[in-house]
């Protein structure tokens, strides 16, 4: 993914031109979004393939910092090649140079340091002999995987060097599958055999280790219910008898009830961040952390089992032998799932003539009219909760959510990246009006590339998710919905007209019935289709898990004072207090 500027067009631009058939180059419309597309590509390819994003210096480089942070948090590989100042420092300061009055070596690209797994500034061409193998090692290391930033000084980009032929020889890099320590396996087996009501939490590491089938076999053989994080959702088909659904703050009552009542949690490939654990309040039982990264494995004061998910589950299963959870635990699973199904039906039920439906109702309709092999894409806002709860991913990999960094504006660019990674799958992007307004130019990118993409825009006229959080913490409606902002008049935004101006087929539908018809038609077109529907910003599917959000200790408003007292009481349930 390339966005040319004066800091990379002459050097890297000329190099890419000469190999454009061997190394396809895709032009983006914004540096952040093109890097998002590259990250989504790597995620869809389960970290088995990497894209490169390059920019000029200055704003081109710093626009990619947000994307680097997203990749860093989500442990996803991407190679970022921002331009940099002249290594010679002769033309100083150059256009777009950020000057530090005390340090002449600082440039804008130093912003990448805290959000890169590996960072280097290329000020001499021979550095690449050592740097490139290091970069690839980061990409294939399951524990250290993340973004690599090589900031290339613009004069160095044009310099020649006699590289050894060996640097360009084809080499196959194989992902390492680390087996856990024998003592940790023995401890995990002993804990599981002593458990009557175990629960397996499937995280993103299940997908990145390509262990979905092994996870399924493990759960079936030992009769262990499975709950899924945002990154782990679609590891197990939604209709599988042992899939209890989404876990945590954005989770469902069946999964969260099991989480409270289990006597042992086996967490596989998850960081157990606060949205999964209810800010350390959801799990009351001991936790085994099966994770390839020691930094993650010690979280939640867990019993560690450090190793690759696929390899470790296979070893665990062999040593567990005929072990199975109790029949009563499986009966409880089925009872809770049936109860949640009834609750869900009440939330999703809508007449075809319904106008301004809830986000959950829109999710259900879109889910109904796309193919079973579709990949749905979402990101921060109201949709992560509704998609996590209600989207029925019947095939592995049918759910793609950016919620580790909670980055709005990811969705449409990610649609481009996922479609490039999985051209044979139907790709459906669901995005709110807030995210759409932040970053939408990659509609034009998708149109230019001839990609088949279906984009559903939910227009609730503001940031409804944060508005509801504001109300839930005792705050007044303020500066989130458009109607509550400072304005002379409210903008009447024609999202369908805007999408058509970018080259897409687009239409605005008036009700739930028309939405289904429009989505079905969009999925049949071989181009970019955008379907817009107005939604109600207030309703949301009820949660069944606490999340710690600070409530002001001092306020003149009675609502805030009451919420602060409730906050203090809830905080006592947080593990560690």
How is this structure best described in words?
- Helix 2 packs across helix 16 (411-421).
- Strand 11 (375-378), helix 15 (383-390) and strand 12 form a beta-alpha-beta unit.
- This protein has 3 domains: 12-168, Rossmann fold, CATH 3.40.50; 182-340, TPP-binding domain (Rossmann fold); 350-534, Thiamin diphosphate (ThDP)-binding fold, Pyr/PP domains (Rossmann fold, 3-Layer(aba) Sandwich).
- The chain is globular.
- It contains 22 helices and 16 strands.
- It is α/β, with parallel strands linked by helices.
- It starts with 11 loop residues before the first helix and ends in a 6-residue tail after the last helix.
- The strands form 3 sheets. The chain has a 6-stranded parallel beta sheet with strand order 7-6-5-8-9-10, sandwiched between helices. Strands 12-11-13-14-16-15 form a 6-stranded parallel beta sheet, with helices on both faces.
Which helices and strands occur, and which strands form pairs?
Elements: H1 12-18, H2 31-44, E1 52-55, H3 59-63, H4 65-74, E2 78-84, E3 118-122, H5 128-140, E4 147-153, H6 182-193, E5 198-202, H7 204-208, H8 212-222, E6 226-228, E7 243-246, H9 253-261, E8 264-268, H10 274-277, E9 287-291, H11 294-297, E10 303-306, H12 309-320, H13 327-348, H14 359-369, E11 375-378, H15 383-390, E12 399-401, H16 411-421, E13 427-432, H17 433-438, H18 442-448, E14 453-459, H19 464-472, H20 495-501, E15 505-509, H21 512-524, E16 528-534, H22 558-571
Parallel strand pairs: 1-2, 2-4, 3-4, 5-6, 5-8, 6-7, 8-9, 9-10, 11-12, 11-13, 13-14, 14-16, 15-16
């Amino acid at each position: 993914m390339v966005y040319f500027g004066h800091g990379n067009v002459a050097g890297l631009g000329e190099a890419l031109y000469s190999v454009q058939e061997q190394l396809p180059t895709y032009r983006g419309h914004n540096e952040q979004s093109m890097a998002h597309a590259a990250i989504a590509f790597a995620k869809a390819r389960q970290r088995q393939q990497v894209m490169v994003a390059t920019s000029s210096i200055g704003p081109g480089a710093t626009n990619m910092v947000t994307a680097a942070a997203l990749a860093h948090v989500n442990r996803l590989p991407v190679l970022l090649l921002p331009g940099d100042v002249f290594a010679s420092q002769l033309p100083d300061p150059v256009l777009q140079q950020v000057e530090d009055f005390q340090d002449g070596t600082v440039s804008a690209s130093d912003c990448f340091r805290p959000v890169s797994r590996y960072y280097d500034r290329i000020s001499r061409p021979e550095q690449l002999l050592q740097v490139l193998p290091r970069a690839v090692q980061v990409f294939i290391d399951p524990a250290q995987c993340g973004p690599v930033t090589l900031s290339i000084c613009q004069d160095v980009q044009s310099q020649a060097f006699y590289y050894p032929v060996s640097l360009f020889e084809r080499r196959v890099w194989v992902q390492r599958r680390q087996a856990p320590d024998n003592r940790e396996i023995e401890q995990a087996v002993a804990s599981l055999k002593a458990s009557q009501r175990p629960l397996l939490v499937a995280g993103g590491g299940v997908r990145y280790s390509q262990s979905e089938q092994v996870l399924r076999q493990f759960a079936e053989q030992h009769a262990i219910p499975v709950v899924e994080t945002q990154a782990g959702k679609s590891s197990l088909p939604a209709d599988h008898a042992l899939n209890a659904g989404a876990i945590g703050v954005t989770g469902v009552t069946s999964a969260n009830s099991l989480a409270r009542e289990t006597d042992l949690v086996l967490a596989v490939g998850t960081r157990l961040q606060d949205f999964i654990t209810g800010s350390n309040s959801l799990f009351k039982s001991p936790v085994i952390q099966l994770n390839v990264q020691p930094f993650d494995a010690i979280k939640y004061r867990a019993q560690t089992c450090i190793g690759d998910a696929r390899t470790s589950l296979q070893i665990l299963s062999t040593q567990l032998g005929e072990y199975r959870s109790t029949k009563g635990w499986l009966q409880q699973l089925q009872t809770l799932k049936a109860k949640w199904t009834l609750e869900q039906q009440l939330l999703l039920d809508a007449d075809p003539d319904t106008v301004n439906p809830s986000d959950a109702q829109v999710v259900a309709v879109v889910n109904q009219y796309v193919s079973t092999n579709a990949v749905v894409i979402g990101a921060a806002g109201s949709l992560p909760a509704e998609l996590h709860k209600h989207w029925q991913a019947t095939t592995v990999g049918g759910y793609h959510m950016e919620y580790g960094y909670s980055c709005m504006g990811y969705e449409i660019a990610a649609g481009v990246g996922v479609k490039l990674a999985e051209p044979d799958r139907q790709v459906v992007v669901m995005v709110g009006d807030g995210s759409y307004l932040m970053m939408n130019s990659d509609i034009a990118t998708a149109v230019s590339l001839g990609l088949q993409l279906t984009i559903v825009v939910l227009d609730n006229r503001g940031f409804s998710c944060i508005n509801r959080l504001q109300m839930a913490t005792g705050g007044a409606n303020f500066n989130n919905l458009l109607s509550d902002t400072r304005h002379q008049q409210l903008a009447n935004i024609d999202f369908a007209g805007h999408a058509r101006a970018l080259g897409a087929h687009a239409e605005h539908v008036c009700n739930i019935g028309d939405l289904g018809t429009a989505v079905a038609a969009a999925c049949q077109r071989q181009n970019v289709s955008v379907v817009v529907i107005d939604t109600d910003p207030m309703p949301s599917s009820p949660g069944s898990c606490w999340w710690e959000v600070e409530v002001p200790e001092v306020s003149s408003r009675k609502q805030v004072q009451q919420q602060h007292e409730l906050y203090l009481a809830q905080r006592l349930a947080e593990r560690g207090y």
